[in-house]
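Help! Submission page says 'invalid entity' but I think these are all valid:
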Amino acid sequence: MSATKKILIVDDSNTILLMVQMILRREGYELVTARDGADGLEKVRTHQPDLVLMDVMMPVMNGFEALQAIRADSTIAATPVIMVTTRAESENVESGYLSGCSDYVTKPINGAELLAKVRNLIID
Amino acid sequence: MKKTASDPVALSQRVVDDNRNLIERLSSDLDSARSELLVEQDRARRLQHQTEAAEAAASAARRERDELLSGLDRFRRDGEKKTAQITTIESQNTHLANLYVACYRLLGTLDRAEVIDAIKDVVINIVGSEDFAIIEARPGETPWTVIGEFGGRVGVGTDIHAESEPVIQSLASGQPFVAPHGDGLVVACVPFRLDGRVTGAIIIFGLLQQKARIEATDLEMLDLLSSHAANALHFTSLHQKSLHEA
């Protein structure tokens, strides 16, 4: 049996944190949360998650900046990151991919879509 | 007298001998041909049996293949049906989770600012709008006061009058209004209902670009907001009042 996979959720919205935790906890994932990009970056380093769900608009350090910092650190650079954005404009999505995101979901979050993308990136 | 080639008797005898030899040879050839014919007939019968057996086997294989293809098709259809069921269940779970989260956020605090933030957070992240205003009735006064907003369309603290006919009707009746095609100035108006009174409302001017319209699940969420947001805001007032009195 494979070890429990760990997911870090980085979002400043309590609603999103609660909602995503409810969706992912049912699947048996171990969850860690962070409230901004800097906190998220720190927790990627300390918790070494199997996947990160990263909001874009956050205080202190936004999601793109945190993602770039993750990709620049060789010890955590390979961590899959799904960006969570409120906008689906092509430039926003393009910025995410340029920063090195593995995939993205748009708000309001569709649980089935999120689960499919998480399963796709977390390999047992 | 010496017999010569022209001796008719000898000639006749030779003809008889030749004929006999010929008949014997022909008879022998005929026997051989009969034997070969029997062998060939036997081989033809065997081939016929083998052909029939092969055709029967091919027919059985075709039937088996058809059954397997049919089974595979059934299996594929079952798989698709189950995938669709799982997707539906996951969507329902998400919806229930959203309703739970909205309730939890709205009723999880007695701090007025936090309740307003919770309403905004729910509208942004669950309903899917970044262009809306939250208004509240001021007892004894006709205008509505903006107590929260997103998108910069109206300032917090501003007094406003409802001008859109559907919004006026919605605020008067307490029934949510949702624009049929998501067009117009107002996409939705969700009155806050408390003891049959309308105490406030969320007025949604626009949805996120990727969200085409208000869905059935959104209506349930808006209905929940309609009652729970009113309660949550009322509780904060009672709490403030009790603190003041204490």
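Support: the input was valid. A stray whitespace character was the problem, and the output above is from the cleaned input. The mean pLDDT of chain A is 88.
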